[in-house]
Each structure stands twice: as C-alpha cells, then as structure tokens.
Amino acid sequence: MSLLNAILVGLREIWAHKFRSLLTMLGIILGVSSLIAMSAIVKGMEHGMKEAMIALGGLDKVLTREAPVPTWQSHLSDQARGRTMRDVEALQRSAPLIRMVSPEMALERVTISRGDKRTRPSEFVGVWPVVIEMNLHNLEHGRFFNDVDEANAHAVIVIGTAIRDDLFGSPEQLGREVIPIGERVQINGQTFTIVGMFEHYESDQDRKKREWAREHPDEAAQKQAVARGRPGYGGGGSRSGWAFDRKNRTVYCPMNTMWLRFRAASGTGNVPDPTLTDIDFKVEDLSQMEDALQQAKNVLLTTHNGIEDFSFSTQEGNIESVDQAIRNARMSGGIISAISLLVGGIGIMNIMLASITERVREIGIRKAIGATFLDVFTQILVEAVVIAIIGGLAGLVAANLLVRFLASLSPTGNTPIVTFEAMAMAFGFSVAIGVLAGLFPAFKAAKLNPIQALRYE
Amino acid sequence: MALIELRGVSKIYHLGGEEIRALDNVDLDINPGEFISIIGPSGSGKSTLMHILGCLDSPSKGSIKLDGMEIGSASARELARIRNQKIGFVFQFFNLLPKLNVLQNVELPMVYAGCSSRERRERAMDALRLVEMDNRAKHRPMQLSGGQQQRAAIARALVNSPKIVFADEPTGNLDSHTGETILKLFHDLSLKGSTIALVTHDPEIAAVTPRKIEIRDGKISKNVDAKLSGQHDGPKFAVGSQQN
C-alpha cells in the first residue's frame, strides 16, 4: 500500500469519526497553541526589556572609566595623565568603528540657587551637543547649546524638570505650566541663564499613576499622605524610578564654559585639572562591539603612552541578566507547553488503541487479503500522524488567534511576537508526538493474528 | 502437477499441557481447475486445514507446496504476499469493510498488490461484472442484501486472479434460495476454470462438488472423486424454479 493511499485511508477514518477526532486533536491544538503563545509572550517580553534598556542607556553606549594603573605599570603611574580632550579627538579621528564620542567634564558638590531656593543636581556637566543623542535626551522647551555658546563659553545651562520643580515649583503644585527659559540662576555663585529644559522622564507605570492622580485628585491626596510616611527616593515610584529621577536632575553647560569658569581656575598647585569625568562613545554596529572596543583601546593606549589607566564598561552585563530572565521564562513555559503536548500525544495513543480494538475484524480482513505487517503498521501510524498534523495546523491558527486576543487584552503591555521558529518548532513537535503516539498502537495492530482477528466479534 | 501438495502436515496446539492435534499427518493433492468441498463436523479440523491451505497459518509439521513452491517455512511477509496474489477468500459473514463501497472493497486486494488506481478500477469492474454486481458498485455493503454482499465478496476474492479460492461456509448466512444462487455461481466459475474449495459442514452443499474431502478428528476420512468413479453427473440447481 502506497503512502498516499495510507494517508487517504487515514483521512477517511478521521472523517468517519469527526467528533472523536476533534476531541483527540484538541490536546494537540492546545499544546501547540500554548507553546507558540508562550514563546510569543516571552519574545514580546524580551523585546520590551531590550527596548527599555535602550531607552535608559542604549545598548551601543560604552563608558570609558578611570581605572587604576595595572600592577606591572605601577612605576609609570605618575605619568598617567587620565582621560583628556586629546583622547576624544584621537577617538574621533582614528576609530572608524565608533560612531560618536561625547566628552563629559563634571563638577562635584554643586549647589544651584535662585533667590532663597536651592537644590543639588544629580550631575552638573560640561558637554558637547552630541550628548543629547548619547544619553537619549529630548529637549521640550528652549534650545540646546550651539557652537557660539561653545566657542564663547557662554554661561548657559539646560536643565531637567526636577531642577525646575525645586527652583520654580512644579506644575502639579502651581496648577500651571512652568517654563523657566531665560531665567537666571546661581551655580556656585556664578550666574547662568537657562536656555533649555528637557522633557519629563518617567516610567510607564509612573506616567499612568500621574494621569490617574490627575483624574482622581481626592484619592490621590489620600495615597500621597500614606506614601509620605514611607522612605524612598523621589517620593516613591517604580523600581526603575531612580534612573528617571537621576535623569530629571541633570544640568548641562557647554564644555568650554565648564573648563574656563570652573576647572581652569581650580586644581592643585594652580595647575588646572584637564581630565574628563567621562568619555562616552557609541559603536557603529552592535555586532562589532568587541572590535570597536579593541579599536578604542588601541587608540587610547597610544594617547596614554601605553599606560592602561582606563577601562570600558558596556550594557553587556545588563543584557546578560535580561537574557537569563528570558531564558528562565522560556524554559518554564516550554516545559509546561511540552507537558500539554505530551498529554495530547497520550490522548492520540489512547484513541488509536480504542480504534484498533474496534477494528480488529477489519485488520483481520485486510491481512487475509494480503496486507503485510508493514501495511497495517503504516496505516495506523499514518492515521495517528495525520491527526497530529491536522491538530498541529489547527494549533498554529489557534495560536495566532490567541496571541491576537492576548494583545488586545493589554494594549499597553509588551506585544507578543509570534516567530516563525516557534511555529516550526511547535508544529514539528506535534508531528513527532503523533509518530510516538502511533508507534505502539500500530505495532499492536500489525501484530494481530489474522485468524483470531477474523473470528473477533 | 498438483496445485497444492500437502505431505504429512500436522497442526498441534498445546492447551494447558494437553496436546491437541487439529491436523494429524494429512496428505492431500488439489489439482488446478478442481471444484472440491472440504466437509466435516465442527471441531473436525476442517477450518485448520483451510487456514493452512490458505496460508493464514503455518503447519507444525510437514511440507506444503503451492504452485510448486514450498511454503511451510515461509515468513509472515511472504505468506501475506501469497495470500494477496494466489489465494482468494470468501467468508461466511462476507467480511466486506463497511466504510468502503463495493468497488473500493473489491479494489482492496489490488491496493496491497500495488496496482495503479486505473488498473484497480478496470479489474474491479470486470470482477463485479463476472458476479453481476457491476450496477451496485457505488453501494455500501450495508445497503445490499446478504446474497449481493456475498457476490461482492466473491468478486473481491477473484480480482487478483488467484490460483485457488477458498469459501468458508459461503452460504451459512444466507437463506437456502440465495445460497443456491451463490453455489451456482461457484459452479459456473469452476466451469470457467477457477480452482475452488468449499469448506462446509453441510453434506447437501458438498454434493454440489465433484470431489469431497471428509475430515474427522484431524484426519482425512474420505476422499471421493465422483468424476473418477463416474458417479457425478453435475449438480441439480433449483435456482429459477421458485421452490419456497
């Protein structure tokens, strides 16, 4: 009997017991759809987590940190000059795998004041305009520095919303929009003009909470009172709230302003300190991270006369922990789905065993007129596999519907992503389950003695 | 040369330590074109003999040659092949597959023989014409009378042009009138050259065949060939004369 014939016979048999076949397939359908839906949810989660990480720092962002001079170079440590603008220029010039370089020169222990109000920024840094792209800032009001500000070392700053809140009052308190562009503030006694302000950074969760509070002012006030008793940074927020709060307390001024107004006039023994606090850079291509880092290292070793007083830090560690979480979710989801597929397979085996018991006489007749062991074996096995294949295909359809349904339930959450790999794997798995489930019944049927099978009532 | 040659064939079962000789040292020759009946009471061993002759079972002892080929020691796969190509079966309960229509039932042996679907259709229709069932080809077995079902079963037995057809109580489930038409069909087929073996417990049915082999306690007790003794002048069929 040819395979095509066996498939036709199998289809006819399935059609003859429509309801029973449907129930049998249900196990496979559920298994396949849960496997795909689970993998889609995990994929969506992965996507969302990576997205969040990019929003916070960017995966391609590398920080050049100060590092202690290695032991074998310790005799050279007094010649280590630290990271300077020379490094920045060298990187821009000689490292083609690096897309942008952003130097940062920070001033510690800064107080900003306006009248009797004073506050401390999270960082007061002299920067180049490229910092906007480097740290993924969005300017909401005013402007950022330009070349004129840089060249003339204008006393201008761009601030985050938290600084505005402290010095001018927040829109929530005053009940109106507060845009402090053009206002003057004192930074360590020097007068600066605010030329721009960033947008308010917050997590989705905080934004939802704030919007809710605006719509339900009474309840929000109550919650505020309760929350006040609790310790926390930034008045309590989501777990990643600290990152957003820190970003909101940023104060930037032009690099030259920082150098001329603060650094040039300080330093030990009247020698100004030209070292940068940070050299951030972004790589051209994430997949070439290793090469880019090596290139940067080579360039910096040249400018540092071979003294390795720097190190790089990337988001790699964070990515790894995210990957670990994703792997765990995938593993546990996969096991659960695999078990449900297995149950589906047991369902198929059960039905096939019942079915061959019902068809002992038919098998006897087929053997009497010339069906071999292999013929009967193939027929039963194909029938089980056909059930599994149909169930698997229906499962693919069901999975897509299920994922669409899940996505419509929570439009704000991470959208599940159905991948081709997941579908192929789930389908392949269901076919394999069908084969495994069919083996034993097929063997049992093929082994039947034709004489006894013909006598069977 | 005989079509089937049995030499010293025994079939021994062991039931709870007791040895049961279903067949005991049987010698038998069946020649091509013969129309024979194997007759005996139930438990005599006639079914066992038919199973062994029909390659559904292997003997415990002895040699059996079908068409010059020794099959006593054939594998299950070889036996299936022989059943498919050289042997046709007609059963008491027709044993048509209820899910298939008549044509598909008749095609079934050719499916296992690996014939193309066109050849299957043509030969199945030929076989159905032979038993005058070609106008019922698309019917399901359940839609047919017992006699029609048995005709379809006979068509299925003949479709692969077997060397020999075994009919196990082919009239046992039919009324006497229909039974006679079936017997007449077998008689006509035998006149056309088919080798047919009827297995029955009924001497009246056995009377139709020129040669009778009587089995008792696993041994052949009588082997009468009326043609050789000149006593057989053909069966008397009442078909067409409305007895009942």
Report on this model:
The complex is a heterodimer of chains A (457) and B (244). With 457 residues, chain A is of the alpha+beta class. Chain A folds into two domains: 3-54 and 321-455, no CATH class; 60-203 and 240-314, no CATH class. Chain A contains 17 helices and twelve strands. Chain A has helices at 3-16, 18-56, 85-94, 131-134, 147-152, 161-168, 171-174, 204-215, 217-228, 241-248, 255-263, 289-303, 316-358, 360-368, 373-409, 420-446, 450-455; strands at residues 61-66, 98-107, 112-114, 117-119, 123-127, 139-142, 156-159, 184-187, 190-198, 250-254, 278-283, 310-313. In chain A, strands 1, 2, 3, 4, 5, 6, 7, 8, 9, 10, 11 and 12 form a twelve-stranded mixed beta sheet that branches. Chain A is elongated and about 110 Å long. The two termini of chain A are 26 Å apart. Mean pLDDT of chain A is 84; it is low at 227-240. Chain B has 244 residues and is α/β, with parallel strands linked by helices. Chain B has a single domain, classed as P-loop containing nucleotide triphosphate hydrolases (Rossmann fold). Chain B has eight helices and ten strands. Chain B has a six-stranded mixed beta sheet with strand order 6-7-8-3-9-10, sandwiched between helices. In chain B, strands 2-1-4-5 form a four-stranded antiparallel beta sheet, covered by helices on one side. In chain B, strand 7, helix 6 (176-191) and strand 8 form a beta-alpha-beta unit. In chain B, helix 3 (102-113) runs parallel beside helix 5 and helix 5 packs parallel to helix 6 (176-191). The longest helix of chain B is centred in the last third of the chain and has 16 residues, at 176-191. Mean pLDDT of chain B is 84; it is low at 240-244. At the A-B interface, helix 1, helix 14, helix 15 and helix 17 of A face helix 2 and helix 3 of B.
